[in-house]
Predict the structure.
Amino acid sequence: MRCRPGLAAAAMFATLTAIPLAAAVSDARAAQAQILIDAYGDSTTLGISCSEGHCAPQAENAVAYLQDELQTRHGERVRVANYGVGGTMATQLRDGTGNRRAGPTAGLPWRERLAASPAQIVLINYGINEVMQNQTPEQFYAAQTTLVKTARALGKEPVLETSNPMPDNRLNARLASMVAMTRRVAAEQQVSLVDQFAYISSLPDWKTLMSDGAHPKPGLYRLKAEQDFQVVEPLVRRLLDGTL
């Protein structure tokens, strides 16, 4: 049966108009995509700095700076939540025994807590309190391995971060053993690593950028955020592109 010219033209018009409409819908969906990042760690994640013997969380911290940089590049559809808790270790995050005031799910074991989170990317930063609490590198290795494997099993993209160095040479030597475990886990589990320990240690006079024996000044937090951005931003881009 022959198609009448009017019907053929109408069909062709519908097909041609459907193409830009589909593209517009695709663009709208991409614009609405939300990338959520959870940052877990100790007081250096929380953002504590010290001045004249008084230590307190600062608005100018690495997590806040990271969100600023990501939003400058991708807009407010990218958000970073700060779940840093002072004085905590990776084992406490794993077991749910850290500060229960750090969010409604803070008292839950890691698997349950992470399952309840909509975040696609998870930053993990520990090591300093492991030194201060005399934990062994092997214990730290086991805890971080569990954190990473669990995140992957739940469909999250984990990013490990080594601690910033400590000005005390004796403590810093012990911290280096913890840092080695973080690097080992990242290599074995093939996850992204932000090696803050190596980066900061390479800076001239880096000790002047510390506010005390463990916590950076705001300027160093900004430098840490720049290192985070170099690793995290490509992951965000791939999520927005649908390739991660």
User: Anything to note?
Assistant: The chain has two domains: 1-32, 34-241.
